[in-house]
Amino acid sequence: MPQPSLGGVVGIVNDSSVDIYVFPNVSTDTIVGLAAGEPYIVPADGQLYNITCVQNPIVGVWSVSTPTSNNSIRKTVSVNLTADGTVNDGATYSYSAPLLNSNKTTYYPAGSPYDVLNAPLPTNDWFDTPEFNTYNKVRLAKITVKTNVPAGDLTGAVSQRSSTLMGLTDVQLFQLFGYVRIISLGSNGATFSVNEFNLLRPLDVYSSLVNAGNSTQYASHYMKNGTLYQQLESVASNNVWQDINDANGNRRIYFSPYIGYGQTGTPYTGYPSGFSFEAEVIVDFEFSM
Q: For the residues 160-172, what does the mean pLDDT come to?
């Protein structure tokens, strides 16, 4: 960003295929809602984001106006998840929580019968926000996963590889996974229709790649309590509008995240005692009338 000047506006349209990180001019300046010096991420959506200076000159503060064209808004929602062996399939996988196994209920009014998608149970991990009740359509725009997988000290040392720091083999590290599943009401009732970010996995040699100046693609890092951890990011591939309600006004779609570890040949039971895979899963929804 340029030097802050009260009332100054910077308009940004990201027509690329990757996110843009917009930093304040100096590390003491802030963008509203973020820590000092932390960047605002403009998604690759081709829409206008206006960043306005609202305080100057002692400390520069900027406010972001997100796109509202076509009567749409964006909303960020997050869920904290943990997979530690407590919930499992008994042989191979450990999950953060049971999958969102929503079922349908069939109603038989005087006319034709119709199905309603049952709401998630309180024990399920799922995303919800009031906009699901006030808008007609929704789509998943972006996913960010803040993991507890160490990024290391960003040197090329073997001791800074993530598997070494977590006490895993590199194969075990690769088997850490996560999904956002869209649960919709189809012709056969409740169905899992989309998996998102299942191809995003922590990188064992993340520290070495950063040190060498090489691309880490979807993986970046964030700091928590003085330690760097890997962060996975992706613009959602399922970038299509979904109807929130059916023709009868009943909600027909839910979004459920989960993380886990273990695969055939590397079951969760073979991981170190007390191992825990943790993540904050953050999604950007876009709502429209």
A: 95
